[in-house]
Specification:
The chain is of the alpha+beta class and 197 residues long. The protein folds into two domains: 1-38; 42-190, Rieske Iron-sulfur Protein (3-layer Sandwich). Helix content is 21%, strand content 21%. The chain contains three helices and nine strands, in the order ααβββαββββββ. It has a three-stranded antiparallel sheet with strand order 1-9-8, with no helix packed on it. Strands 2-3-4 form a three-stranded antiparallel sheet, with no helix packed on it. A three-stranded antiparallel sheet has the order 5-6-7, with no helix packed on it. β6 (149-152) and β7 (157-159) form a beta hairpin. The longest helix has 28 residues, at 8-35. It is elongated, with a radius of gyration of 26 Å.
Length: 197
Amino acid sequence: MDNSNVDKGRRRFLTAAATVVGGAGAAAGAVPFIATMAPSEKAKAIGAPVEVDISKLKPGERMIEKWQGKPIWILRRTQEMLDDIAAQDDAVSDPGSDASAQPEYAKNEYRAREDEYLVVIGICTHLGCSPSFVVKEGDNAPVEDWKGGFFCPCHGSRFDLAGRVFKGVPAPTNLVVPPYKFISPSRLVIGDDSEAV
């Protein structure tokens, strides 16, 4: 075969074009495969960790996420809210969280990794109802001198802004703190607290 009439420029162009098209096809084919590695909604519902963006959460606001089919409350507390927590130690049943469920890193006054953020499972520890978030200045305060917190209208259980249960209500323990960790100042992972930042 005589290669003297071969257009080498054209051959290089066709080889490069075929390589680019093949690479794009391989990348396009890999996208669905890689997407299958992310946990499905079903996997998240049964316990896979859930990553949450908290960058838009303003002080005093609460957001609700879902993990293991349960509502997870993330409350960004103001300095006033933090001050009110300490002022209620005598009114709550378990101020040191000795009888309540939380990871060791949340066994502190604010029941949190970082004082500013409360992360709890939003289910009353009495019969599993979902309490309401009632702010300090609200008209629907359950008692006089309410400093804000969570109120379960089903049977009257009340929790402070650290999820600690008040004395004299049906709920036996503080709200449960799930395992979690911060992976950046604006993102956290619920359901995994290994090698936390």
